[in-house]
Design a protein that fits this description.
11 helices, alpha/beta, 50% helix, single chain, 290 residues, two-stranded antiparallel ribbon, five-stranded parallel beta sheet
């Protein structure tokens, strides 16, 4: 007997689909903004595992634009090298840069301040002493790129980003202006580390088009259901197998170790390898429950 979605699950699917439409709209707007004379950057906030980067790459990939994905969960030095290489290879051509998970580069006031310069002045200034050989050997693209952006008599290097449009995905919600003010009052005034960071994060919000995707667990499940059932995720699985994954995740959501699109992909691989007499739910219990 073919599995079906319950009325509650259908409602969650529709809610998740609605949230995903916002995500699709945002990513396409970011890609289209490359046609603007002044870049318009986007910041997409939402819970982990909903496919922010996956959808960003999919939407941008459908348009006739040059795009690259870089990790934001690295040091500012490593981040600067990534951008230096892309700029070196694309000195004039407009490029959409998808920053996948920017938690690390937004971890403190200093690195946030550098991102303010990136988004507000279209420049990344790495103003610390470093040895060029730490970037790579002389024949490497990284070495050549960073070398081209070193200015004599100055520390570090500076990468001009005037032809870049940034699409940032993150698990960090940017505070509103009044939220930052409340944090200041709650955490010992303007000079506390929390207050400084909050003000800098609020300033980031002012430099981007923010898309806030707060989701209930049902909406997050519905988002996943949409990707599985209507957006061809896990295409090697039958519809019955995809529904089995969704029902299992619905029944065990609060006890799952992870609830992301990647989780569904892992489950699908287990189902592909399973034998006829294997108990799929027992296998999922062992692999995915806390």
């Amino acid at each position: 007997m073919l599995l079906k979605l319950s009325s509650k699950q259908m409602a969650a699917l529709e809610a998740g689909k609605s949230q995903r439409k916002h995500l699709i709209f945002a990513t396409k707007q970011a890609a289209l903004s490359t046609e603007l004379e002044i870049p318009e950057h986007y910041y997409i906030y939402g819970p982990s595992g909903i496919g922010k980067t996956y959808q960003s790459e999919k939407a941008v990939g459908e348009l006739d634009v040059v795009w690259r994905t870089v990790s934001g969960n690295v040091s500012m030095f490593a981040f600067a090298i990534q951008l230096a290489v892309i700029k070196y290879v694309n000195p004039q051509k407009k490029v959409v840069i998808i920053i996948d998970d920017c938690d690390e580069i937004l971890k403190d006031a200093k690195t946030i301040n550098q991102m303010k310069e990136v988004l507000g002045k279209n420049i990344l200034s790495y103003n610390k002493r470093f040895h060029i050989n730490s970037v790579g050997d002389e024949s490497s693209l990284e070495y050549q790129a960073v070398s081209s952006f070193i200015k004599e008599g100055r520390l570090g290097f500076e990468v001009p980003l005037d032809n870049f449009t940034f699409l940032i995905t993150s698990n960090i919600e940017l505070p509103y202006d009044d939220t930052a003010e409340k944090i200041v009052k709650k955490n010992g005034g303007l000079d506390s580390s929390k207050s400084i960071r909050a003000r800098h994060l609020a300033a980031i919000r002012g430099r981007v088009m923010p898309i806030d995707l707060n989701m209930t667990w049902q909406e997050k499940w519905g988002n996943l259901a949409f990707v599985l059932l209507e957006d061809n995720l896990c295409s090697d699985c039958t519809e019955e197998q995809r529904l089995t994954i969704l029902h299992y995740m619905w029944d065990n959501w609060s006890n799952l170790k992870e609830t992301s699109i990647r989780t569904a992909e892992k489950m699908s691989r287990i189902m592909q390898r399973a034998k006829e007499d294997d108990n799929i739910r027992d296998m999922f219990d062992f692999m995915f429950l806390k």
